[in-house]
Amino acid sequence: MDAQTTVIDARQSRQALLAGSVGNFIEWYEFGVYGFLATVIAANFFTLQGESEITSLILTYAAFALAFFCRPIGAVIFGRIGDRIGRRPTLIAVLLLMTLATALIGVMPTYASIGVAAPLLLTLLRMFQGLFAGGEFGGAVSLMTEFAPKGKRGLYGAWQSLTVAFGLLAGAGLVALLAALLTPEQLHDWGWRIPFLLALPMGAVALWLRLKLQETPTFKQAQQRGGETAQVPEVKLGGMLKTILIGIGRMMGWSAAGYTFLVVMPSYLQTSLHATFQQALVATVLANVGFALTILPAGILSDKLGRKTVMLAAVIAVILFTFPLLHLLQNPQSSLLAKGIAVLFAGAVVGMLAGPGPAMLAEMFPTKVRYTGLGLAYSLSNAVFSGSAGLIITGLIKQTGNLDIPAYYVVATSVVSLFALMTLRRDDHLRSLNER
Fold it and tell me: What angle do CA 265, 266, 267 make, to 5 degrees?
């Protein structure tokens, strides 16, 4: 390979990293905004006469969960397209559709304006968002890891998780800014619309970046070797389904802990621990800062030590420290500094899972089904263990009054992940994606 080709490849790798990351940023920015504004959205769309505040919140999280359950459908539809015609055109399509659905939420009439049609329409838009977002992850991770230089697949895949953190932080930061600048009445009346409408300019920038992309070299090589890349012999279907189930198991703890600590936290602190809206947002920002700080180091470390070593250490930390961290938050005698360190640490441990996670999933599937396979494993895990986190935790707390429910949920799923991660090969990070 000559020097010129090396320069071009390096430039294409950087372009792929940026173009893949920006779509994930928008997706998780919006999902974070919805979670951070859950109590405001509940008041505007899901408030029913004679029902408690927590019931409205449960209905809000039900719409949240439905969006996640549409993700696997999107992963299959857009994954098949991406494995047949390429990563680039599919990622452009899902970006346009996802941006449009998000912006439409910003102009939705509320329950006070059109009655029961409001929550129904909002839920429908959330379902479309989930469908389109389901096609984002598999394509973005395939793009990043297939363009990654040798020995840097963990680092490149980690950028997908880092943009999740940036998206959640941007959403939390914007909501906190609006809460500080606007009165509670203004925020409930029209201020909540601003974060959703900002998806339009963000989407325009992301589209410009993706239009400049070229197709990945790994996908091109697969096309040259085998013609239509998504045609899998029937005898391999069972093996692929088994691989997807293993991928879900490896992700369960990551999914549950991630959404419990990073997104559900604000509503839990407000409704169960009686924190103020601003206090809950500060706690969430700290958790997401901790999350962001460890993602890239964990990805780099996994390129040196292997995905198995880093992810096992992280999931063991989640199992050991979740209950003590939650009890510290619940204790009224705990100082604000101690609570701040606790949520920062909680986010940091999730970051250690999220850093190597995308590369780990990419390494599980051959090129001709990578977009579909890793996207489906990721979306199914998130549908069950992330999208349902708010609904499950809030509902169980309402039924039982047990404030330790979030810890039971996170630890139980992490124990399953512990055993699933033990099946990882220690040399997966050293093998070429073309070998799969």
Answer: 95
CA 267 to CA 58: how far, in whole Å?
11
Element spanning 114, H or E: helix 111-114
Give how far Cα 123 sits from Cα of 55, 120, 126, 131, 349, Å: 16, 5, 5, 12, 32
Tell me the DSSP string of 259-318: HIIIIIHHHHHHHTT---HHHHHHHHHHHHHHHHHHHHHHHHHHHHH-HHHHHHHHHHHH
Q: Which amino acid is at 9?
A: D
Residue 351 token pair: 């970051």
d(CA 428, CA 436): 10
CA distance 361 to 355: 11
How confident is the prediction along the chain (436 residues), in pLDDT tens digits per residue? Answer: 333 343 337 777 888 888 888 888 888 888 778 777 877 887 787 776 555 666 666 777 777 777 778 889 999 999 999 888 888 899 999 999 989 988 998 999 988 788 778 888 888 888 898 888 889 888 899 888 888 888 899 999 999 889 878 887 888 788 888 888 988 888 888 998 999 999 899 999 999 989 888 888 888 887 776 654 444 434 367 778 899 999 999 999 998 998 888 777 666 666 666 677 677 777 778 888 899 999 999 999 999 999 999 999 999 999 999 999 888 877 878 777 887 888 899 899 999 999 999 999 999 988 888 999 999 999 889 888 876 777 777 778 878 888 888 889 999 999 999 999 999 988 878 787 765 5
**What single string gives the DSSP state of each residue in 122-169?**
HHHHHHHHHHHHHHHHHHHHHHHHHHPPTT-HHHHHHHHHHHHHHHHH
Burial-class residue 407 by CB neighbours within 10 Å (0-12, 13-18, 19+). buried
The C-alpha atoms of residue 403 and residue 328 are separated, in whole angstroms, by: 12
How many beta carbons lie within 10 A of that of residue 321, not counting itself?
A: 17
Could you say which DSSP state residue 65 is in? Answer: H
The alpha carbons of the chain give a radius of gyration, in whole angstroms, of 21
User: Which residues fall within 8 angstroms of residue 202, CB to CB, at 6 or more apart?
Assistant: 22, 25, 26, 29, 99
The pair of three-digit structure tokens given for residue 302, joined into one six-digit string: 């996994």
Contact 390, 64 (CB under 8 A): yes
